[in-house]
Design goal:
By secondary structure, the protein is of the alpha+beta class. The protein has 9 helices and 15 strands. The strands form 4 sheets. Strands 3, 4, 9, 10, 11, 12 and 13 form a 7-stranded mixed β-sheet that branches. The chain has a 4-stranded mixed β-sheet with strand order 1-2-5-6. Strands 7-8 form a two-stranded antiparallel ribbon. The mean pLDDT is about 95.
Length: about 350
């Protein structure tokens, strides 16, 4: 865990990451080669075949300036069929192809006797630090990230987060978790974010408007305030609470509360997307009937909503605290939050 401040009143899990939700693992493949500063991150909801053992899920599009793939079918059917992949904007198609090939290799009936598979890839534009036109992400990078999935994983400038910026500082991968009490039972909720959004003067850290104090000169701050927000954030929420797809969509929407607390206004050019899934049960591909546990009543969802919002806010802070400074394309540089603080006059 980083030394980031703890937000909210709920306790975190042992790891303080999305991997506190049993069965969830994360892996990275990082490309750090001069002007190429990018990568792939994969979130596995369980260690089995996700096509055969689908996971209930739902998504919310808070602001839709994004190029993700797979959201339409998730919205229609309410399940995941592949692990979740994160990468840069121009890597989406390549990573989707890798997901399709992996699913076909494991299940040769896909696209023949069985329906096709729905790849799920989210993206942010890392073009400030990364030479995105190089199209450096290859299918092999998805496979490396998938193979690297583990409960312990790097945050900050790793995987898909390598070239991302957050509040004009170095951003990237962040994670957090919270324990919610619902009718006498404990449920774990965790979040992972790909943070690539925000303007420095708007940065709010644990309720403190810290961004203004980090701006070197008042004149520079005022100029930055006039610049539109073009960044994006992908927010993945996992829980072990038994919820259906409709309830998961409601849970995913609470990511917006956590995002707003950090200073985002979901700008015109921002792609802000949240997806929530549960590990409480799976949907077998071939079964005629599905065993669903007793679901949490809608009237008892508030603790889970709080856990989701707090986990997302914590994950964004974690991304800032975990990142290291990166120099990339054309000498562009993003200072980490810690280096920016160290350089304050």
């Amino acid at each position: 865990m980083t030394d980031a401040p703890h937000v909210g009143t709920l306790a975190a899990g042992l790891l303080g990451t999305i991997a506190d939700v049993a069965g969830v693992t994360v892996g990275h493949c990082t490309l750090d080669e001069g002007p190429v500063q990018t990568g792939v991150t994969v979130v596995r909801p369980h260690d089995g075949d996700v096509y055969r053992r689908k996971v209930p899920a739902a998504a919310s599009v808070i602001n839709g300036f994004g190029k993700s793939i797979g959201l339409v079918q998730v919205d229609e059917l309410g399940v995941l069929e592949t692990p979740i992949a994160l990468t840069n904007t121009f890597g989406v198609g390549t990573v989707a192809n890798a997901q399709i090939r992996a699913a076909i290799t494991a299940n040769p009936e896909i696209g023949r006797e069985w329906p096709t598979v729905n790849p799920l890839v989210f993206e942010c534009n890392d073009g400030y630090l990364n030479d995105i036109q190089a199209l450096a992400v290859q299918e092999a990078h998805y496979h490396r990230a998938l193979q690297a999935c583990d409960r312990a994983f790097e945050r900050g400038s790793a995987g898909a987060g390598r070239g991302m910026s957050c509040f004009e500082l170095k951003g990237g991968i962040g994670s957090g978790s919270r324990i919610a009490q619902v009718a006498g039972r404990s449920f774990m909720t965790g979040a992972l974010v790909l943070a690539n959004f925000g303007r420095l003067p708007m940065l709010t850290l644990a309720g403190v408007a810290l961004g203004r104090s980090l701006a070197a000169l008042e004149q520079q701050e005022q100029q930055k305030q006039q610049k539109p927000e073009h960044g994006s954030i992908i927010m993945i929420i996992a829980t072990d609470a038994p919820l259906d797809a409709r309830q998961l969509r409601r849970l995913s929407m609470r990511a917006a509360a956590g995002l707003a607390r950090t200073g985002s206004v979901y700008g015109h050019g921002s792609g802000d997307i949240s997806l929530a899934f549960t590990t409480a049960y799976v949907v077998p591909h071939l079964d005629d009937f599905i065993d669903v546990p007793a679901l949490v009543s809608d009237a008892r969802l508030d603790p889970l909503f709080q856990a989701a919002a707090d986990s997302v806010e914590q994950a964004i802070i974690d991304a800032l605290f975990s990142a290291v400074s990166v120099t990339g394309r054309d000498g562009h540089r993003r200072l980490s939050f810690k280096d920016m603080q160290a350089n304050k006059p």
